[in-house]
Amino acid sequence: MFLSQIFIPMRYKHTGIKYYIGVALQRSILAAVLIALTGVSAQAATPALPDGLTEQQIDNVVSRAQQAFDVPGVAVGVIHDGKIVFAKGYGRKAENEKSGKVDTNTLFAIGSNSKEFTATALATLVDEGKLKWTDRVSDVMPEFKVADPWITREFRVSDLLTHHSGMGLGAGDLMLFSHSTFTRKDVLAALSYMPFTGRFRADYAYNNLLYVVAGALVEKVSGQTWEHYVQTSLIDAAALPACQSTFPVKGQEDVAAGQGSDGVLPDRSTLKPVALAPAGGVWCSVNGMSRWAQTLLNGGQTVDGRKIISLAQRDALWSPHALLPLPDSAGKTQSHFRAYGYGWFMEDFFGLKRIWHTGTVGGMVSYVSMLPEKNTGLVVLTNHEDNHATYSIALTISSLVATGKSEDWVTYWQDVARKAEQKTASEASSTGPGSPARPFMPLPVSELKDYVGLYHDAWRGDIRLSLKENALVMSFSKADGLSGTLSALPHNLFVAKWQDRANDASDDSYVQFERDTSGKVTGFHMQVVGSDFSFDAQDMHPLKVSDQ
Length: 548
Hints:
Layout: H1 3-6, E1 10-14, E2 17-21, H2 28-38, H3 55-69, E3 73-80, E4 83-91, E5 108-109, H4 115-127, H5 137-140, H6 149-154, H7 184-190, H8 209-222, H9 226-236, E6 243-244, H10 277-280, E7 283-284, H11 286-297, H12 311-317, E8 322-324, E9 338-340, E10 345-349, E11 352-361, E12 364-371, E13 376-382, H13 387-403, H14 409-430, H15 445-448, E14 453-457, E15 461-468, E16 471-476, E17 483-489, E18 493-498, H16 501-504, E19 509-515, E20 521-528, E21 543-546
Helix pairs in contact: 3-13, 4-8, 4-9, 7-8, 13-14
């Protein structure tokens, strides 16, 4: 299929700036030629796969992973010796069995692999002399402020990207996920209220919030929106086929739908930039992501000689800037260190340096893995939120490239998933809320009225508790659809069960109300029952501001 059949030039206006979604139609001929030259198309004659890897091995591990983890659709790309040597789609675009087949131009949400686009955008500004990694953020963006004045002054551009700010795991994610309608301006305004739970530049805690700030910094320095800058200076400049910095819209047909999604796309006229985008908003096909990896492996230069970033800045992105703990699987890959660069993880992998990142958003998971010493890269895109499938495929292929053999990663991750499920089920049935050991208790409406009112959190905003059909219901401001019914446990403790079970069931949370010495309810704390770090309810402390 030619690009002219896939890309339709689509534009919309926002604050006087035109946004371009996809590559303009007039570029389609050039892009098609590039595909032919670089081997993106699975149907075209392609150069050889790297030693130790065959097409049959790729097909086999994808098939096993799809069956083991119930994944509807997968796309895989392999880059080797400067060429895209393999690109293929597997399965269907959505959970619906009548959905179309995944192909190499099918758009997937790549989640946190968007971070490498934001980091690269900053690198282009460094290349242009408009910014330094060592610049104080507040010098460039005076509105930047965190909770600690000294850290505010010392916070450098590089600190936005390394997950060592001192904020907690997933800090501020409730402004980015869970139906949030926060803007980037809202996020910046709330930043100074985010608590620090670790040591600045010492403790690792994965953070989306500061990549949103990094995106705002791109906007400040470039004078363009993050979406426009990433689209024109990276995606279009590198001629990434089927790739865009904005959410797909009606009229785009080759689009995957994530787990739990109805697949309905918004109208272009209603599309607005979302706060999350610099941390997780790019949509791309395996053709586009393969060309992206190809460009980075080529030192930041496209195959037709266009420089996207300098080799020095590509190396800065791929250099260790913060150490991380090793995973349980380190022994199986002979890994002795793990670190984070700028938008990339890195580790030793069977004696080789491996650069990689994953991304999860909207019921989809992506994985990019590169072995620069083998001049090889890998892209895996899926439309199922279980990351065990992408890990199985990526680690199998990476192992085969590195050593010519591989652990049975599908079985390994099946065992990990099974043990985690068994532990969760055991805890829920034995000591979990609503279990025989901790049964819910009915409360009369007269007692529930104590908790009714408007509460305010310094960074998340207003939260309302109301009575509906004799039940206590919690609803959040700036969140279309985040509401749930509270069930009581002893001692002013409740569990909020969110109404949108398809998207929010894993975020059910404890709500511990507080009373003053007179017995009046004054506020509450929250803690997610499960383990979703992006529902960072523990960072809030809403106080009651009204009984109405």
